[in-house]
Amino acid sequence: MSGKYPWPGKKTSALGAKTPASYNCMVQHSLRRLLLCLLFSGATLVSLISCSAPHPPDLAIIHVTVIDATGAPPQTDSTVVIVDSQISAVGPSSSLDIPRGTKTIDASGKFLLPGLADMHLHLTGAGEPGGSREFILPLLIANGITTVRDMGGSVVLLKQLRQEISSGDRIGPQIFFTGPFLDGDPPYFQPSIVVRNAQDAAAAVQQLKSDGVDFIKVQSRLQPAGYFAIAQASRRAAMRYVGHVPDSLSARAASEAGQASIEHLTGVLLACSTREDELRRRQLAAPPSAGSLNQSLQRLRFWQQDLLDSYSDQKATKLFQTFVANHTWQVPTFPLLIHLAYLTPETDLAHDPRLKYVPAGVRKNWDEGRRQNLVHQTEEEYEMRRKLVQRSLSVVKQMHLGGVSIMAGTDTTAPNVLPGFSLHEDLVDLVEAGLTPLAALQAATVKPAEFLGRTAEQGTIVPGKRADLILLNANPLHDIRNTQKIDAVIVNGKLLNRGDLDALLGQVARFAASH
Predict the structure, then answer these.
(1) Taking the model in full, what pTM does it have?
(2) CA 21 to CA 15: how far, in whole Å?
(3) How far apart are the first and last CA of the chain?
(4) Which residues contact 229 (CB under 8 A, 6 or more apart)?
(5) 159-177, pLDDT tens digit by residue?
(6) Do residues 374 and 17 touch, judged by C-beta distance below 8 A?
(7) pLDDT per residue over 407-439, tens digit each?
(8) Half-sphere exposure (Cβ direction) of 91: Cα atoms closer than 13 Å
(9) Beta strands 486-491; 494-497: pairing state
(10) Which of 69, 61, 41 is nearest to 483 (CA)?
């Protein structure tokens, strides 16, 4: 997967997609303005975001159907009791005792799930925490996302956001993060640390470990020497590294070196090709800027067609067996692939009403990017993009059936990827790929808990676990789109009912309209 072409997950400038210069610069300037205006206006989310009470009141959700994400059948007419931000009891409503003074919610006809996790997003693209606080975090919470893995950003700002949330000063998801990218020279995005050799790798990994990151993030321009040095340095530091498969390497080599998760299917389709080495050489030899635009688009389309034509089920099976043996997880990020990398007129969000939640300055940049991405394309290019989406879906199905662990993720806030809402789109895409609704839910609940090493704390509805929950008005096992029918969200024991969530969304919409 080359960072020079819009392969799955690539954020390139060739066809108007997300670029390190235009996108990051725009977001930085737009959301700085948002923060300054907010400070001067004094606008706050006092009732929904400020949480001064040390502990929420005890709560019991009664007569609810519990889908606990363990794989057990739904538990009808159940009661879930929450005490001191933890699930204290789960059982039949007919027999479970509720402590005196507990607030109760009659959830007859409703369905209770664990809080969702978005395992690939970016919270600090604005360069300031203000945009995250007033735009991204509220949309995540309104969509029932209670855990996130930030895959590249400012350590200082991420720590600041995490501290505000963990201290109870702000309602938000748990944040796990990588900090700056480790990339080749020059890097694609900022913040990045250039790694060329073992000395660079050792220094970068040690610094990031000292900074308190949860993972090391590798990027596409790393050369083999730098990449394998990072793998070695991460092992010595007892740190897991995650991210892109570099353009210069095979996904098999990345898995065998110990990469813990692969994002956006980078390198996966190429590693399933019988012509892998040849296609990689062509990929690296001819940047899309070479020749005219028409020549570039034609060269890209021929490369993609050769990639699809040379796909080998036998080679794919062996690759996926390697992933299973090495515990190499996958985060496909279908919203990014469909709405950016493989954008077509029918997947364009230009008239999506949810854009009212995106700040006007950010939305303007997204609009221009979509226009550039679509204006020079022909129906041949669109058809190729549709084929690549379908192949990506089929590959995820093959991986799932082969036992590869898959997690939900979006790449928020890449252009056209709506914070919060896009995770529900990813669940729909995972089901379209061939996962059952339960397996898709597990990709956003228990699977992330397993990857994070937190199965004792979260991911299922079991006594003793953190009270991060979503109450739905319809059964997601019958239709995965029902995860979008949210009646209430409970975040670390704090209840936000539908009225609270609507007020939160209204605040974001007003903020977005004025910035």
Answers:
(1) 0.89
(2) 14
(3) 36
(4) 195, 197, 198, 200, 201, 202
(5) 999 999 999 999 999 999 9
(6) no
(7) 999 999 999 999 999 999 999 999 999 999 999
(8) 8
(9) antiparallel
(10) 69
